[in-house]
Write a sequence for this structure.
């Protein structure tokens, strides 16, 4: 529900009230930035992940990216940002993986830039809350891996609306 509310520019409350119902009935759908191939698009302003096939949005997923705060990991001060740009999936782990920075567990991560990944999580609030990775639900991550298929080399475009 949050993904639809984000796309429609509504309050992110997870409740199907009149405005959310109207957006659902209207088939509100974002316009992807890419037009060719299978692409993962991440809209940081709306906190959504789009699965795009040849310019058509296949699925819209609630996401949570870097919250911009400063944190300490392994004695270093870092900022929780998700970098914008065009990347591709370069590494993946089919299972639970512990962050090398000791920041927690990631479910079935697919890395797109250095240590940044799209990964499943049991905590995916409708606002930026991560250390920089893009969190989606474990069910969404299973869909990306098992049904949609995003092999290594799949383009990932991270942008602001």
């Amino acid at each position: 529900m949050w993904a639809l509310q984000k796309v429609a520019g509504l309050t992110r409350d997870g409740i199907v009230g009149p405005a959310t119902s109207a957006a659902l009935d209207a088939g509100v759908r974002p316009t992807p930035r890419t037009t060719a191939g299978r692409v993962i698009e991440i809209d940081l302003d709306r906190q959504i992940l789009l699965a795009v096939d040849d310019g058509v949005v296949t699925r819209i997923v609630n996401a949570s990216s870097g919250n911009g705060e400063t944190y300490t990991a392994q004695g270093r001060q870092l900022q929780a940002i998700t970098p914008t740009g065009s990347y591709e999936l370069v590494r993946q782990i089919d299972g639970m993986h512990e962050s090398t920075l000791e920041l927690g567990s990631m479910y079935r991560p697919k890395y797109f830039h250095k240590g940044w990944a799209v990964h499943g999580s049991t905590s995916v609030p409708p606002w930026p809350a991560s250390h920089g990775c893009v969190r989606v639900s474990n069910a969404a991550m299973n869909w990306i891996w098992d049904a949609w298929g995003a092999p290594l080399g799949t383009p990932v475009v991270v942008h602001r609306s």
The chain has a mean pLDDT of 94. The longest helix spans residues 138-148. Helices lie at 2-8, 18-26, 138-148. Residues 66 and 81 are 4 Å apart (CA to CA).
